[in-house]
Amino acid sequence: QEPLTESGGGTVKAGDSLRISCAASPSANRFKCMGWFRQAPGKEREGIAAITAGGNVATADSLKDQFTISQDRARDEIYLQMHSLKPEDTAIYYCAARTETWPCTPDPVRFPYWGQGTQVTVSS
To answer: 31 with 100: CB under 8 angstroms?
Structure first.
């Protein structure tokens, strides 16, 4: 079983909102920090937000007004609520996790476990 599985991606129109989800496998309750990242075609992977098991959140400054990370620990799931989507938000969105709590910031190199990603396409 994959440790992380994203869902909820799709095609939306500019200005729409969308929530995507990431489910951790039951054996993955060791994850103490989880995060969201995205990668657009031809660009490097970008960190969006991360959240600790205790609920501490770190969000990239440039994305704070548009993206909100949350979690349901009982379900071993995290979510990314996206608002006012723009065509430039089109990317594959990835969930990632680590077994250490700190530092829990959306820096891709700190996360050893990754999901397969979910495509989000924003049409103009």
So the answer is: no
Q: Are 18 and 80 in contact (CB under 8 A)?
A: no
pLDDT for 7-35, tens place per residue?
A: 999 999 999 999 999 999 876 568 999 99
CB atoms within 10 A of CB 30: 13
Which residues, 6 or more positions from 45, have their beta carbon under 8 angstroms from its beta carbon?
37, 38, 39, 94, 108
Cis before residue 103, ω within 30 degrees of 0?
A: yes
Asked, as a colleague might, if the bond just before 108 is cis with ω within 30 of 0, I would say no
**If you search the block for the tokens 């909100």, which residue do you land on?**
68
